[in-house]
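Annotators were shown the component list below and the corresponding predicted structure, then asked to write short factual statements about the assembly.
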Amino acid sequence: MAIMTMIWGVLIGIGFGLALSLSGASSHKLIVNALLLRDLRLMKIIMTALAVGLIGVNLLDAAGLAHLKIKPAYLLGVTLGGLLFGVGFAVAGFCPGTCLVGAVERKLDVLFVVLGGLLGATTFGLLFPRLKPILIDRFNYGEVRLSQLLGVPPLILAGLLAIGLLVLAWWLPDRRET
Amino acid sequence: MTEQRKTVAPTVWQRTGDPEEPVIPWWLGGAAIGLLLTIGVAVFAPLGVSGEFSATGGRVLNAVAPATIQGNSYFAKLGLSWETVLVIGLLIGAALGAMLARKRPMTVPSVWANRFGTSVAKRCAAAFAGGFVLLFGARLAGGCTSGHMISGVSQLALSSFVFAGAIFASGMVTARLLFRGGK
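Structure shown to annotators:
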């Protein structure tokens, strides 16, 4: 990796850490209340990030300037992994990026999310040779994009999704009385 | 007509330092993340965090018990990667954010305390177990909220739409089971 790329990476990381910290994405309260649909501010952060990302990434792609990295669609492993992730998301009250931010913010319990996470990720790595043939090689449809599947130009689909997400984010209330 | 009193939103520096509350509006945080992802895609690659967890574990194993990862392709690349530099930046950014917002240190989150009490040991044990399942799931699925969902859906990856649906379905059910009745 070129030195300039590394500098870009650190700068983007700093911006990302600042955004997560200041927007409250590294708050257990915001995350759990989002999953309980009591406080939708975290959902709105995600929706706005997706809308801007969809437009930005697909404009770059249309201009031939994007370094895309499409995750392969191994549907069994992705679904099972996503379901486990969701359980951890609710129990820990953090996700992998926000737990790193929370730990730096001197939230003691979040340090334990990070430690558990290191063990969990490493355990998966150790089991990888055995899990790969069952969960990753089967039902693997490769690097498929939704735009290919639907036969729609990526920028059009991205634009429509982005508009829908922004309208939804503006229309939804911040908090719901319970 | 009664005169409405104008309330001016306090700035970052005037907030109370509540570590559980945002200091910038959701749209600003979201737009910043989307923009940073776009810059990443223009420069080198999308964002990602969870791969660094297994890489860090791999580096530790490589140092203390190299035989355990011998021949395991999952731990083949343990050098400095795009995700390594992103995470280094992320940690710096988090420290800056905590300072700017004057976030106070804390132990047990309020929503947890209202449901399960203020025992630090109990909360930390759950946090550890939750973290284990979280990262095991992330590595199995091939990414996390930033790398899979935000980066992946922005690239229109089918895999990431499936992942996003799975994490919210299971996260919402689990949260409801855990915190039902809590306030």
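Statements collected:
1. The mean pLDDT of chain A is 97.
2. Chain A touches chain B through 126 residues (CB under 8 Å).
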